[in-house]
Amino acid sequence: MKFAKENEKLEFKKTTAELSEGVISMAAILNKHGGGELYFGIRNDGTPLGMDISDKTLRDVSESVASHIEPKIYPKINAVYVGDKHCIYVEFAGENAPYYAFGRAYVRVADTDRQMSAAELESYILKKNAGRDAWDSDVSAHTVADVKETVLRDYIDHANNAGRIDFAYTDNAEVLNKLAVTQDGKLKNAADVLFCGSPNLEIQMAIFAGPERLTFIDIDRKSGSVTELVEIAEKYIRSNIRWRVVLDGSIQRKEIPEIPIEAVREAIINSYCHRLYSSSQNNEVTIHSNRIEIYNPGTFPEGLTPQDFIDGTGRSVKRNPLLAQLMYYSKDIESFGTGLRRITEACEKTGVKVEFQMLKLGFSVVFYRPDENFLTTEKTPDVVRNVVTNVVLKKSEQAVFEAIANTPSVTAEQLATALSKSGRTIQRYLDSLQKKNVIRRVGSTKSGHWEILGGANSADE
Question: Which domains does the chain have, with CATH numbers?
Fold first, then answer.
């Protein structure tokens, strides 16, 4: 006799030796249907086998469910007869999905259990919360007194200059009330991350010697408010990319960055506007010899691609709508859903390749750096020309020159590590490059930077 067939709400296990698998099935069914049934003592084709059942057997099932499914559920667990076979019957339900078994989320597909990917889980949570207030509208633990006055003053000034609000700064409480970002004296999460920040809200920044994540030239972490971290990240990139000095007939010289700064800033702002703030991961800026990456822990909206937004066919999906609204007031964002298009257009104008990477655990904007000819290439001979004539360098000097061109803030000690040379050897190369008038040191040894005075052609040793 066969009892029934497994389906999306019904699962069979032969014995409690498969208790862990049974717990996983329960979580998967809860996430798909909110409840279901599980039998121990029945083969997966529906044939009752029966099993020895004691009070301890029932306790083991109850304790395993209580210990390994989160959030907690309270199933009905009974010994029953299926035909003449003694089996365990578990009936379960829950309304607090997503449920996790052994720390992982699963979903029921036909009669099997499949682990959810990070993107599927995030999409599941977003769909579940559709129609509810988003995370950034929830109340945080911070109060009005925790807001940094200088940060809020600067924000209001920017919003006034943009013409998007019509009131001036008076005091924190009044301004935050007008922005509708408080509740009973406490801040909503959007105001918390924008004006307060916390030790847990960080930007991680690093410079690598080559294209891989192997040898660090520099690494840094900063915490603060979103407003502060955007400025910190932009300054870090500005200080560690190459700038070409050009003459165009005007009195003042012009400096052109290898990556358009407006695109860089847009990418940084987007990374905070769209990040998943419940994630323990940090936003990241990494500078490689061939590219710059700006990463945030927030997966791309399901069913859409970056090209949809570049083409203007994708509708904005606001993960943090209140935060986005506040950043719109201060003109940090122009309008919803247009950031990727503005980044693309800025890069196309300057001939820089940009790539948008949809990752399993986040999203990255990748700017590819021009080759070493960036400093010497003449795009318009009559207008853009190099300040200093090229100088022939030895290969060893050329390696140091290129490292400095890629990372102007690099120190002699960092160069020695990155190029596997002694400090004395690196200093000799630096002295030679300065005598040849292709680089010069600006500022102190520790806090200064290198300035490129001209291009260089390599030669054999």
Answer: 10-116 (3.30.950.30), 199-307+331-372 (3.30.565.60), 388-459 (1.10.10.10)
